[in-house]
Each structure stands twice: as structure tokens, then as C-alpha cells.
């Protein structure tokens, strides 16, 4: 049994508070039947021990009591994944409001080794993505991942995450100690007086006696548009007014 759940972290021991069904299923091939189903369920005081055991097996780092106390209050931000009614994965997130942004931080997302590549990780991440989309008020989603965890990096990249930073010596007790910060931007960080949500304050851009008033701008297209404006200024005659992004 040892190492079957967790070939990547063989120092971890499987102990006996996983269910008998789980243990017996791990001895065989992961069942991939037509009726296989993956569902997400709440974390409650009744199943928190399963979450702890799962995290101990899946991740090389340990999480303290405060982590699990907070998870119990996280609502939709913490979910267990069930494969044919067996707990095989979990995702735990929290809201981070540092750096003048509101970001969702994925603390842990993982599933037991024999149940990987069955779409369970995707199901958990899609749940998180739906959550932030419905909330509508997050700037980005981010997480830390060990630099050698290529499978997880590929997994997150598939969902539009990018490596935005590499932190040396982020981990204290595991090798390698460096972590990538993976991030998926939901709305760009707005600077220079431009408001959140992609609206630009009405602004006049003048050159060679010509003026363009930009009232509203989709910020994601701003670089492209501003370049176009300056090109336009060289050929246009008079004042051009752009009222909304659809008219650009
Ligand atoms: N190598 C390359 N691509 C991968 C891998 C891999 N090992 N795993 C997933 N992908 C990509 C593939 O494109 C895959 O689609 P495909 O199977 O059709 O090719 C796609 O991601 C979706 O895969 P899922 O089946 O949904 O992912 P899975 O259920 O296997 O979960 C996860 C992926 C969570 C990374 C899993 O491997 C795992 O639990 N790893 C151990 C824990 C971990 O490293 N967690 C993430 C880092 S820490 C954190 O999240 C905060």
C-alpha cells in the first residue's frame, strides 16, 4: 500500500483512517466505468479528518490546526471531491486582500494518485473558477507550486494560469525549496487613475493640434487602442470622439 497513493512523496505513510473501500480500491486499477461520477461536497466537522488524511498523503507539507479551523468556515471555498462516493480529492482556498487587490488564493488542490487524470482536479478548479466568476469582484487567482511539480504546472496552465514569479527558499522543509507563483488574472490591475473594472476616466489625448477624447475604454485593449489613436492622429483632421469600446 505504501507509496501507492503517493508515489511522489514516498515518505508519507498511509494509515488506517481511510475507508476500507478506498484502501481496497487502491489495490486494483482505478475504476473507470461508464457510471463513474465525480461530485463535490462540503467540508464539515464530520469529515474534516478525511480532509486532513488526504492532505497528509497528497502534499509534502503539513497544515496546522488553524488551517483546518479556517477551512471549516470557508464555505464554498473548501470542497471534498468524491469519486463514486469515495473521498479522493480536496480543494481549499482563502481570500487574500494584500497588495491592494482582492485575490483568491488556492492553498491546496489535489487528489489521490490512483484517481489522477480522471478530470477530478479539473472539477475542483472549475468550481473555484465558477465561484470567482459569480462573485465578480476578484482581481486574480493565485497559488504556490514547487518548481519541480511539472504535472501541476501543466494542469494550471491548461486553465490559463501563468508563472508570474519564482520565490527562492519559499519552502522550509522540502526540496526543492523554490516555488513558482501561478496566477490567473481576472481583471487587470488598474493604475494611473484608471478605475477598477476597465473604465477609464474621460481623457483627452492631443497631438499636433488634434484632440481625441476617450470616454470609456476596455482596458485590456488599451495598448492596442492607444497605439491606433496615435497613428490616427497622424492622418486625421479634426476632433475624434470615442464614446464606448464598441465604437472603437
Ligand atoms: N502532466 C501533464 N499534464 C497534466 C498532468 C500531468 N501530471 N495532470 C493534469 N494535466 C493536465 C492535462 O492536460 C489534463 O488533461 P488530460 O488528462 O485530458 O490530458 C488536464 O490537466 C486535466 O487533468 P485532471 O484529470 O483534471 O487533473 P487531475 O485530477 O489529475 O489533478 C492535480 C491534477 C491536482 C495537479 C493532481 O496531479 C494532483 O493532485 N497532484 C498532487 C498535488 C498537487 O501537486 N497539487 C497542485 C499543486 S499545489 C496547489 O495547488 C496549491
TrEMBL record:
Domain N-acetyltransferase: residue ranges: 38-187
Q: Which UniProt keywords apply?
A: Acyltransferase, Cytoplasm, Transferase
An example of a GO molecular function for this protein is: protein N-terminal-methionine acetyltransferase activity
Task: Please classify the protein's predominant subcellular localization into one broad category.
Answer: cytoplasm
EC number(s) recorded for this UniProt protein: 2.3.1.258
Keyword Hydrolase assigned to the entry: answer is no
Please indicate if the UniProt record lists Flavoprotein as a keyword. no
**PROSITE patterns membership:** GNAT
Q: Where in the cell is it found?
A: Cytoplasm
Q: Which reaction does it catalyse?
A: N-terminal L-methionyl-L-alanyl-[protein] + acetyl-CoA = N-terminal N(alpha)-acetyl-L-methionyl-L-alanyl-[protein] + CoA + H(+); N-terminal L-methionyl-L-seryl-[protein] + acetyl-CoA = N-terminal N(alpha)-acetyl-L-methionyl-L-seryl-[protein] + CoA + H(+); N-terminal L-methionyl-L-phenylalanyl-[protein] + acetyl-CoA = N-terminal N(alpha)-acetyl-L-methionyl-L-phenylalanyl-[protein] + CoA + H(+); N-terminal L-methionyl-L-leucyl-[protein] + acetyl-CoA = N-terminal N(alpha)-acetyl-L-methionyl-L-leucyl-[protein] + CoA + H(+)
Q: GO cellular-component terms in the record? A: NatA complex
Name of a matching Pfam family = Acetyltransf_1
Record protein name field: N-terminal methionine N(alpha)-acetyltransferase NatE
Name its species: Timema cristinae
Amino acid at each position: 500500500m505504501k507509496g501507492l497513493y503517493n508515489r511522489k512523496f514516498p515518505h508519507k505513510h498511509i494509515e488506517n483512517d481511510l475507508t476500507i473501500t478506498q484502501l481496497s480500491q487502491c489495490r486494483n486499477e482505478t475504476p473507470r466505468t461508464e457510471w463513474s461520477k465525480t461530485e463535490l461536497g462540503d467540508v464539515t466537522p464530520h469529515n474534516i479528518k478525511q480532509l486532513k488524511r488526504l492532505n497528509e498523503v497528497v502534499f509534502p507539507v503539513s497544515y496546522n490546526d488553524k488551517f483546518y479551523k479556517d477551512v471549516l468556515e470557508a464555505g464554498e471555498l473548501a470542497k471534498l471531491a468524491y469519486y463514486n462516493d469515495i473521498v479522493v480529492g480536496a480543494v481549499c482556498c482563502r481570500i487574500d486582500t494584500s497588495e491592494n487587490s482582492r485575490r483568491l488564493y488556492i492553498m491546496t488542490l489535489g487528489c489521490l494518485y490512483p484517481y489522477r487524470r480522471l478530470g477530478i482536479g479539473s472539477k475542483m478548479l472549475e468550481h473555484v473558477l465558477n465561484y470567482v466568476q459569480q462573485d465578480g469582484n476578484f482581481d486574480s487567482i493565485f497559488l504556490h507550486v514547487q518548481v519541480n511539480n511539472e504535472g501541476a504546472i501543466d494542469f494550471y496552465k491548461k486553465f490559463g494560469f501563468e508563472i508570474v514569479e519564482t520565490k527562492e527558499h519559499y519552502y522550509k522543509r522540502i526540496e526543492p525549496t523554490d516555488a513558482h507563483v501561478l496566477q490567473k488574472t481576472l481583471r487587470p490591475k488598474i493604475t494611473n487613475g484608471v478605475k477598477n473594472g476597465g473604465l477609464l476616466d474621460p481623457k483627452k489625448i492631443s497631438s499636433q493640434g488634434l484632440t481625441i477624447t476617450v470616454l470609456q475604454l476596455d482596458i485590456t485593449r488599451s495598448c492596442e487602442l492607444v497605439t491606433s489613436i496615435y497613428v490616427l492622429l497622424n492622418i486625421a483632421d479634426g476632433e475624434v470622439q470615442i464614446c464606448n469600446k464598441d465604437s472603437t
